[in-house]
Design brief:
Shape: globular
Order of helices and strands: EHEHEHEHEHEHHHE
Structural class: alpha/beta
CATH architecture: 3-Layer(aba) Sandwich
Largest sheet: 7 strands, parallel
Helix content: 40-55%
CATH superfamily: NAD(P)-binding Rossmann-like Domain
Number of strands: 7
Bound molecules: nicotinamide-adenine-dinucleotide
Strand order of the largest sheet: 3-2-1-4-5-6-7
């Protein structure tokens, strides 16, 4: 297996894409520290991994705070004695016109989506440097092309790409690779929350599907497999890059 003997920490691994990433990393042999701010969700992911014979532990903490981020990194090192892979996945949305967005709502989105990545990376790098580690940051296609109501989300996801490139340069001499994955439409509770903001969520879902040349939305495991590849030695020449996984959505300029 590609990640035998490696230790990974995945933020927001109690749900959706984070859970899919935790599954795929553990299937490649990694021990996984599951972080989430929601306790029950985190333990559900742990139960799933343990039931498949994987090694998994939990740290419930809010990675948007310095203490919460430090707790998650320290838990992985305490539990498994090392850290090889950090996946910064935890994220929030917010669908509101900019003029109606309260400054606290702006901070709430930026603190989780962008500052949390900085905080977890800050505490992780000294550990990752010991063994040629890997960081994978979960951005979004919204970093490049977005929709109305997503100013804070799009800004946070575009920020992740800049952060990824700059950190990749700083970390290359330490043997740490840093990359970003930009998912398109992935069927998770966060996506349902977005569709639920429409008058007719079922119709919104059907309309969105039309913009996916591949004919389906993505699954958390589609992203998990890409992250597992980037975390493995098969990707040893890849750093500072963005990988889009969106079923062709952003390749489509115009629907005939
Ligand atoms: N679903 C999509 O279509 C899609 C597309 C592009 C990018 N993304 C990104 O993928 C990531 C995961 O999204 P998802 O769709 O799986 O969402 P989700 O809501 O299903 O899962 C996100 C998880 O993060 C956790 N979380 C939120 N804030 C946290 C915090 N401060 N500390 C620790 N955990 C926290 C939540 O409790 C939740 O379990 C996010 O960064 C999101 O922006 C999702």
């Amino acid at each position: 297996m590609k990640l035998d003997g490696r230790v990974a920490m995945v933020t927001g691994a109690g749900s959706g894409i984070g859970r899919g990433i935790a599954e795929c990393l553990s299937e490649e042999g990694a021990a996984v520290l599951i972080n989430d701010v929601k306790q029950q969700a985190a333990y559900e992911t742990q139960g799933l991994l343990l039931s498949r014979g994987a090694s998994a532990a939990v740290m419930v903490s809010d990675i948007s705070t310095p203490a919460g981020a430090a707790k998650a990194i320290e838990a992985a090192v305490r539990e498994y004695g090392r850290l090889d892979i950090l996946v910064n996945n935890a994220g929030r949305q917010g669908n509101k016109p900019m003029v109606d967005l309260d400054p606290r709502e702006w901070d709430g989105i930026l603190d989780v989506n962008l500052k949390g990545i900085y905080l977890c990376s800050k505490w992780a790098v000294p550990h990752l440097a010991k063994g040629g580690g890997v960081i994978v940051n979960i951005s979004s296609v919204h970093a490049t092309a977005t929709i109305e109501g997503f100013t804070a989300y799009a800004a946070s996801k575009a920020g992740i790409l800049g952060f990824t490139r700059a950190l990749a340069l700083e970390c290359a001499p330490m043997g740490i690779r840093v990359n970003a994955v930009s998912p398109g439409t992935i069927d998770t509770p966060l996506l349902q929350e977005f569709f639920d903001s429409f008058e007719d969520p079922r119709q919104a879902r059907a309309e969105y599907l039309k913009f996916h040349p591949i004919g389906r939305f993505g699954t958390p495991r589609d992203i998990g497999k890409l992250v597992a590849f980037l975390a493995s030695d098969d990707a040893s020449f890849i750093t500072g890059s963005e990988f889009i996984s969106d079923g062709g959505m952003t390749a489509c300029l115009f629907k005939k």
